[in-house]
Amino acid sequence: MQPIVNGLEDEYGSDIEFVKINIDDPNSAAAKQEYGFRYQPYFVLVDADGEVLESWPGYTDATLFEDAFATILEN
Length: 75
Prior knowledge:
This protein is α+β, with helices and mostly antiparallel strands. The chain has a single domain, classed as Glutaredoxin (3-Layer(aba) Sandwich), CATH 3.40.30.10. It is built from three helices and two strands; from the N terminus they run ααββα. A two-stranded antiparallel ribbon has the order 1-2.
């Protein structure tokens, strides 16, 4: 998934902030609990107010991310 995420970050990074959390880092425990982390990989799309717009557990096709990004960037 890393090449897909890096490619999306290259393409959308000027419009969307990408934050990567190391699941093995004890300092990420609060974020994992807040976003309901249960799978690896796990992706969460959060708006500027901190509201979860969408989440994707497990391996995800890039087009699903792109569709979600297009929807929020149109608004």
